[in-house]
What does this fold into?
Amino acid sequence: MKVFNTESIVVPGARAEVFERAFSLAEMPKLLRGWGPVPGVERAELLDAGGYAVGKIRRIHNTDGSSLDEEILVHEPPSAHSYRLYGDFRGLAKLLVSEGRGDWRFVALDDARTEVSWRYQFTLTSPLAWPLALPMMKVAFANMQRGTLKLLRAAFE
It folds into this structure.
């Protein structure tokens, strides 16, 4: 069983620049600050040399001490980036979630405005997890997504 949420925002920046900032390893701790039980990112690293590419792993070190891996499924600058999240979930997420998937899309509205959409989907450990996972996704995780997108927009204002 899966639960998901999608958030979107218009960023006052050119699509290529917005895409680059959204996935900059140095920017991730500034953008992904967490919300409630959802931890923020302390630091992120690519495990292989070179840049982003399909099949590479990005390791996320969170503020709750957990480390999660993101397998890059799609990396098509400046329009799309998708990944599968798995690993050392902590707290309530450890009981509810077996993996996640993030799908980012970037649409140029004109030369100086980009619509950014971020869809997130969690695969649940069991259908019995749904009553707790739904509010976690639709409240805590949704607020973290909105906060991240607002910080991305603010970086261009």
Q: What stands out?
A: The chain is about 25% helix and 40% strand. The mean pLDDT is 95. The first strand starts at residue 2 and ends at 11. The domain at 2-154 is CATH 3.30.530.20 (Alpha-D-Glucose-1,6-Bisphosphate; Chain A, domain 4).
